């Protein structure tokens, strides 16, 4: 500091803050770690949740020529969840608080919850690892990727009991194996913080793929309800802080650092994250909507959907044909950059730094560092994300379109009509076609539903037990969501 004593006041001020930053470098490193750990699952999970939007025409076959059966829309939130979620979360939190106080030592509770979350975490970490492997190979070894992405069909039949047919990829098996090793290491190595965070990432990543707010206004209502809940539980009751600091289970991200370090609840990642994921899917919806309008000079038409490249890795903002789509609302919800609000060019929009969620997180850390007291992160994250989303829609004239957008399947139009016509046709065929007969011990019997499925899979009608593993034929449909690699 003596070096700046004889200099101007500006240099003295710079020197003062430079010295302060140097003294607080460990704290700064911890906060950067926290920011990265929160943004990673949101970014990856949002891109992995991309699927065929209502404004695009669903393809009938994939790249391998295998027919695709469109999966039904994911279960989304309802407006009533704005009340149900906070009440249910409060009951669970209160129950855990009183159990901890009753036990005095939460070791037994930690062990029980640890086994429970370990079982669930195997799937989450397996999914995250499998998709990460897909991304890494698409960047480094694209020639190997085609072998790991080959599909296999597992069939299991036990007469009159079960008829199972499941399709999977080799990368999924590798991911599941690594997930099992991760969970085993977590329990055998005294639950180190870095394994806790990997499992927590898996939870967030998997949740962002299967959980949808359904509409922007429903998601806004739910976040508003949880906004009030978080403030109440942190500032006006001891419940949140007691449970968060007493439980040693992967329901939070843990960061070693000065003093006791820091932590971030998974709700502070997942809840804003589902709105950010919805914003990215809305961007994809608008991309195909305008593409269809441009194709026929103002008349609406649905262009063919093209799956996103590499899931969420090799070309984050590009489709398989090399064309990019503008991530206006995704970028706004992450960043709220002025160039988006002012109507920047497509090149500027896709290159904008990411801030709405980030600004909220920075505000949380600043207040936390000043007050020296735990902060309800949703107090800052919810306004940051919602103001960025609705503010961008207002400035760009998309408020009506954003309000009407829904993922409950009602916007699919022609696709829904085709699906209903297909189901009606199938029902009529089943009514007009006599039941298949099978031969067992020389007697002709009518086939049960299980046996019909067995016959369709090419299994001998007289087999009692059948287990097989094969690659799917191109003339049979695979049930999987469009947009998933």
UniProtKB/TrEMBL annotation:
Keyword hit for Transmembrane: yes
Compartments where found: Endoplasmic reticulum membrane
Pfam family, one: Peptidase_A22B
Biased composition (Basic and acidic residues): 414-434
Topology within the bilayer: Multi-pass membrane protein
Entry keyword Repressor: no
Originating species: Calycina marina
Key words of the record: Endoplasmic reticulum, Hydrolase, Membrane, Transmembrane, Transmembrane helix
InterPro entries cross-referenced by the UniProt entry: Peptidase_A22B_SPP, Preselin/SPP
Region (Disordered): 410-445
Principal place of residence: endoplasmic reticulum
Protein name, UniProt field: Signal peptide peptidase-domain-containing protein
């Amino acid at each position: 500091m003596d070096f700046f004593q004889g200099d101007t006041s500006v240099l003295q001020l710079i020197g003062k803050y430079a010295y302060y930053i140097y003294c607080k470098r460990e704290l700064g490193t911890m906060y950067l770690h926290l920011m990265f750990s929160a943004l990673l699952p949101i970014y990856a999970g949002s891109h992995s949740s991309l699927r065929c939007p209502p404004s695009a025409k669903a393809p009938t076959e994939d790249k391998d020529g295998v027919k695709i059966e469109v999966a039904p829309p994911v279960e989304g939130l309802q407006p009533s969840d704005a009340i149900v979620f906070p009440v249910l979360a409060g009951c669970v939190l209160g129950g855990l608080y009183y159990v901890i106080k009753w036990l005095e030592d939460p070791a037994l509770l930690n062990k029980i919850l640890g086994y429970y979350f370990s079982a669930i975490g195997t799937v989450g970490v397996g999914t995250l690892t499998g998709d990460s492997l897909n991304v890494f190979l698409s960047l480094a070894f694209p020639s190997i990727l085609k072998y790991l992405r080959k599909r296999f069909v597992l069939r299991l039949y036990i007469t009159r009991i079960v008829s199972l047919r499941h399709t999977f990829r080799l990368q999924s098996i590798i991911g599941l194996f690594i997930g099992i090793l991760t969970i085993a290491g977590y329990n055998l190595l005294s639950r180190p913080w870095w394994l806790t965070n990997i499992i927590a990432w898996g939870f967030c990543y998997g949740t962002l793929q299967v959980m949808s707010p359904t509409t922007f206004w429903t998601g806004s209502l739910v976040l508003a309800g949880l906004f009030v809940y978080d403030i109440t539980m942190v500032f006006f009751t001891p419940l949140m802080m007691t449970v968060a600091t007493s439980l040693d289970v992967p329901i939070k991200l843990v960061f070693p650092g000065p003093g006791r370090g820091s932590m971030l609840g998974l709700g502070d990642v997942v809840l804003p994250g589902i709105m950010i994921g919805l914003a990215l899917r809305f961007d994809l919806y608008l991309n195909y909507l305008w593409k269809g309008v441009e194709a026929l000079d103002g008349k609406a038409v649905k262009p063919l959907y093209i799956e996103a490249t590499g899931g969420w890795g090799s070309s984050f903002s590009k489709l398989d044909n090399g064309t990019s789509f503008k991530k206006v609302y995704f970028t706004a919800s992450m960043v709220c950059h002025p160039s988006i609000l002012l109507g920047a060019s497509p090149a500027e929009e896709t290159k904008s730094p990411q801030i709405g969620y980030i600004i909220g997180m920075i505000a949380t850390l600043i207040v936390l560092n000043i007050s020296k007291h735990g902060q309800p992160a949703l107090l800052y994250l919810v306004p940051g994300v919602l103001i960025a989303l609705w503010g961008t829609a207002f400035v760009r004239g998309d408020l009506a379109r954003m309000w009407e957008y829904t993922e409950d399947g009602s916007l699919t139009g022609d696709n829904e009509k085709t699906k209903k016509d297909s189901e009606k046709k199938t029902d009529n065929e089943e009514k007009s076609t006599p039941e298949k007969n099978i031969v067992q011990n020389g007697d002709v019997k009518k086939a049960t539903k299980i046996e019909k499925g067995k016959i369709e899979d090419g299994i001998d009608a007289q087999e009692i037990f059948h287990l097989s593993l094969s690659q799917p034929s191109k003339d049979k449909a695979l049930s999987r969501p469009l947009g998933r690699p």
